[in-house]
Design a protein that fits this description.
mainly alpha, 196 residues, two-stranded antiparallel ribbon
Length: 196
Amino acid sequence: MITGKRAATKERNTTALVAAARRLFTEHGYQGVGIETIAAEAGLTTGAIYSLFGAKHGLLLAVLADTQGRIEAALRDDPAASASDVVSAYARAYHDFVITPGGWRTLRLEAESLALMMHEEAVRERVTELDEARTERLAGLLEGRLVGSRRLDMAESRRTALALSVLLQGLSRQHAVQPHATDAGFWTDTALALLG
């Protein structure tokens, strides 16, 4: 029974820390917030951050992973959906997130994680793992889906998933610089072009 309580406490603490970090990081930037502030905001100690995330950068990566999960939640795994349906829904969900104030500020966190990657091997490895996991989840959703009259195999699904991720990251950065340069229709049309 204690194991169940510990698991529930761990989940509750993780959720509280990620929510506090998201709010503080998006408001002040990664470098502008200390772990003491995050812990206090979550009603926990700095020891909880080290125990659950290893370090402050682990918490940043958890915020980014949670953000990706929120985008992916918009995808329904409908077995009858075509590859075009999945790609279009993913592009739309990504767009709809990026145009929100919180989504727009999250772009800054992605940029800060890239800067950390250049100086810390552990961060580089974790960001690579997050990117690979996102690509694999998306490839899994695409595999076997129809594109016209043919079904995507795993290799095609992986290539499409990787290209889609890179495309949408680029469009989100363009949005940061030119907020009104494109709309959701452009994002979905450009993403669909990847399917040939």
